[in-house]
Amino acid sequence: METNCNNDQEKFEFQQIFSKKVVKLKSLYIHAFIYAIGLIIYILKEFYGVSLNFFPIQYLNSVVMVIWTSVFLVSVIDLFASYKIFDEEWEERKMKSLLDKKVKKQKWE
């Protein structure tokens, strides 16, 4: 009975981790979509002379785009580098070690 409970807990922990990954990936896709729209507006404004002088687009300039591009690239690198470095096997090993520590602690209590 105890192993069944541990398997349920382990499945729940894995679901938590994967749901966090899905949320991060979804937020990255939303950020990419908004960034693409901002980039298109910036190009229209700066290189084609389209007058878009209303709030907040009037403040879209080169400095803002450099900062925004840097933040976007760092978030992409962070997300996908963490996927490569901390893959599913690493997560499984880590979760099992954490659960083992928790079970050992509970046995002593």
Helices and strands in order:
Layout lengths: L1 H46 L14 H24 L2 H21 L1
Sheet having the most strands:
none
Kindly estimate the percentage of residues that lie in beta strands according to DSSP.
under 5%
The overall strand count is 0
Label the overall shape: rod-shaped
Instruction: Give the helix level as a range of percent.
Output: over 70%
Oligomer: single chain
Question: How much is the radius of gyration in Å?
Answer: 22 Å
Structural class call reads mainly alpha
Low-confidence stretches: none
Mean pLDDT: 79
Distance between the termini: 19 Å
State the helix count.
3
Order of helices and strands: HHH
Fold and architecture overview:
By secondary structure, the chain is an all-alpha fold. Helices cover 83% and strands 0% of the residues. It contains 3 helices and no strands. Helix 1 packs antiparallel against helix 2 and helix 1 crosses helix 3. The radius of gyration is 22 Å and the shape is rod-shaped.
What's the quick description here?
The protein is an all-alpha fold and 109 residues long. The protein contains 3 helices and no strands.
Keywords:
single chain, 109 residues, mainly alpha, 3 helices
